[in-house]
Design a protein that fits this description.
Layout (H helix, E strand, L loop, with lengths): L9 E3 L4 E6 L2 E5 L4 H12 L17 E5 L3 H7 L10 E3 L4 E3 L8 H21 L5 H12 L4 H13 L5 H4 L7 H37 L2 H9 L3 H16 L1 H6 L1 H50 L13
Parallel strand pairs: 3-4, 4-6
Antiparallel strand pairs: 1-2, 2-3, 5-6
Helix pairs in contact: 3-4, 4-7, 7-8, 7-9
């Protein structure tokens, strides 16, 4: 856990900004955001340390967190960011940019902050050897941002196509929101599976050996006794087992719920069809009766009655 070393607000007369320090982070806020900066600093100080990394991984250099109050300011600080970006981390420059104007709930902003801080922590600890899928998956694991509805999004992504390889997964973090969202979800499952394989201690040893060797494959061999390709096969199988549709249909409650809905829909459709048939039958019967009555009336009209001859004699 990071400790709150100091919380001080200093007006920067030249720019009218405020600074709030919290452990390894230095928040830079625009006018009117001092309270927000303090709240974020205090919330971050209570956050747990990133899993598998030493608590002091960020202590050597301070990270500057910018809190732009509007889109124009955000774009000036991160001109290449896609419009759906929740936040941005610049590990080389030790900077984070959080679009505070995009969030109404403070808790969500704290989660995004932890996500971006995790990016910088991974870069400092593992260097450039960590691939993009690990960066994004680890950041979600550290931030605790996984939600139940994301499992359903992942199921639909799997339904639309096969689970891609880890290497190709890194290519999907583009500017298209749907592709990037699916890549984020799959990246989380990969890192979370790495964590589950060895627990907290095993995951910590894996990252320490990765830091020493700079090779994930070698670290996996030494820690879990598997190669990177073997891990990928195990991960793909785990994703299919946990998020595949066969598992969903195999769950009793879900199965009977779906079956009930299907039966209700089928019953409703059959009832409507019977109503249409009954209406058509009634219309045909009414038409036949009308035709019969018309024929009967015509026969009566064509009948000639005889005239009494006596009544007609003078």
């Amino acid at each position: 856990m990071f400790l709150l070393l100091c919380v001080s607000t200093t007006a920067l007369a030249q720019r009218g900004m405020h600074e709030v320090a919290s452990g390894p982070l230095l928040f830079r806020a625009w006018p009117g955001q001092a309270e927000l900066a303090r709240a974020l600093a205090e919330a971050f100080a209570r956050s747990p340390a990133p899993p598998g990394l030493p608590p002091d991984v960020l202590s050597d250099r301070r990270v500057i967190v910018f809190l732009p109050p509007d889109r124009a300011t955000f774009d000036s600080l991160a001109p290449a960011a896609p419009d759906w970006a929740a936040g941005l981390a610049f590990p080389e420059g030790n900077r984070i940019v959080l679009p505070t104007f995009a969030y109404r709930e403070g808790g969500r902003l704290v989660t995004v902050l932890r996500h971006e801080v995790a990016h910088i922590a991974v870069r400092r600890y593992l260097g450039p050897s960590a691939p993009r899928w690990f960066h994004e998956g680890y950041a979600q694991l550290a931030a605790g941002s996984w939600q139940a509805d994301q499992a359903w999004k992942l199921r639909f992504a799997i339904l639309m196509g096969r689970v891609p390889s880890l290497q190709s997964l890194s290519l999907d973090f583009g500017r298209r929101r749907l592709n990037a969202e699916h890549a984020y979800l799959l990246s989380y499952t990969a890192v979370e599976y790495l964590y589950r394989l060895g627990g907290d201690q095993g995951f910590t040893r894996l990252l320490a050996r990765w830091r020493e060797s700079g090779q994930l494959d070698r670290s996996l061999r030494e820690t879990y006794g598997i190669t990177l390709s073997q891990f990928e096969r195990l991960w793909r199988r785990d994703v299919a087992n946990r998020f595949g549709w066969l598992l969903v249909l195999g769950q009793t409650a879900v199965f009977w719920s779906i079956l009930t809905i299907l039966l209700l829909v089928l019953g409703y459709w059959k009832k409507r069809r019977n109503r249409r048939k009954l209406a058509a039958l009634e219309a045909a019967t009414a038409g036949a009766q009308a035709d019969e009555e018309a024929r009967s009336f015509g026969e009566v009209a064509d009948t000639h009655f005889p005239i009494d001859e006596e009544e007609g004699t003078e």
